[in-house]
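S.,

Sequence below, as promised.
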Amino acid sequence: MAGVPVAVSPSEGWDGNDGPWSTFALGFGNPPQFVRVLVSTTCPQPWAVDPLGCAATDPPDCVSSRGGQFNKNDSSTWQDQGLYELDQELNLGYTGNGDFGLDSISLGYPGSGALTVEHQLLATIASKDYYIATWGIAPRPTNLTKSDPKEATFAPEDSYQSLLSTLKQSQEIPRLKQAPASLTLGGYDASRFTPSNLTFDLADDNSRDLVVGVHSISTVGSPQKLLPTPILAFIDATVPHIWLPLEACQMFETFFGISWDASSDLYLVNETTHQALTAQNASLTTTIGTNTLTPEVVNITLPYASFDLQVLDTYPNVANSTRYFPLRRAMNDTQYTLGRTFLQEAYLIADYERSTFSVNQCRFAENVPADIHPILPLNATNGTNGTNAQNSRHKHDTGGLSAGITALVAVLSVIIFAIIVAIVVVFWRRKLNGKALDRSQSDPDQSDHVPELQNEIELKPELHADHVPPPELHGISTGPLEMEVEVAAAEVSGIKSPRYELHG
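The prediction came back faster than expected:
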């Protein structure tokens, strides 16, 4: 039913080798094979981990730690489209290939009554750069070939991108309890944030559209400047880290007493440093605007707990699981990125029909019911006359989502280890205390659909392991892991593709 919020419950699994993070459940193929996924605001299709993603040399729990896997050979409805390079976060060094195909996608576990859609484009991946499967919800179709775009362009129909979910969680202000993720598309939860009243325009590059001007990063209380000059940065829920200029990272090193590890390219934190940082309990305020000069700004404050993450020994070049500070050294301005760490405390609302978005400080309170509102389409007739989604948001408009709206609301917020990333998407993670992760699962609620989405992206033919992406491309680097298996690619647009390798 258009205009009626539809909940997509989280899996209640806690996954990832750099968090961990709360995930959602998707079923791929017929019969459905269920995997746990993280939401991506930049990827336009879902990815599932291929059986080739876990080798005999990997730990015994590899499949489970990666959220499960999808074996396309066990699906009666898989239609292979060929092997292509994954073109997400390439500028950050992420690499990998995907075997793309058409198949069914189910939202949630059996018995949940969730939506199942047929003939949807998805990919199976082996690369460990993208350790957990990805639920790509970026509103644009995918073009799998340059030779004849009309023949191989896929725009989701009755897509999973149409789902809406309410936020049903209680949080402790000290943020010492975990809270599950929540996903909403086409609306927002007014109970979850303090409105910023500042509207941003989506950038022209639809693969890097959520760009903000970062004016400053400073400590709360006794202000300490941690960003030497303003920068333009991309908000990306796909990646966990915050990528800043080297000089800014060095300021963080001095203030927090953290050290960069050249092998892993991470700021690893030992127990002594962790105790000192916990006692210091510094909060950081990131001041952003529509550009680097505007006087109209939004302040997003993150407590130290938002930076207190854990990296596992399955992460490239990390010998033993340890705490880490999710800051990365950017090589150039194409890498300036605000990832899930930033979005733990920022509620992001993106309205793709109007090409606008907003970033708001998350608000946490106990026992406050969700207050879900749809983002009205441009042709709304309930008194708003299709006013800007940001204004509609503050007026608490109600009304249905027409077949023409493509409104995604991304919410990313935390309860110390909880992230709300949404569309409205909300990611939650829990703090590790040296205990095993809880991977219990609960059923998602029912779902609905929205119409075809617009804009186009091209996936390039597969490149081999020795390929080094040029700096102008987009993405995060964890370093490639070796595992090569030859896979015969299927025909696309009547042209037989050469054989490529699906890398682990």
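The two ends are 41 Å apart (CA to CA).

Coffee later?
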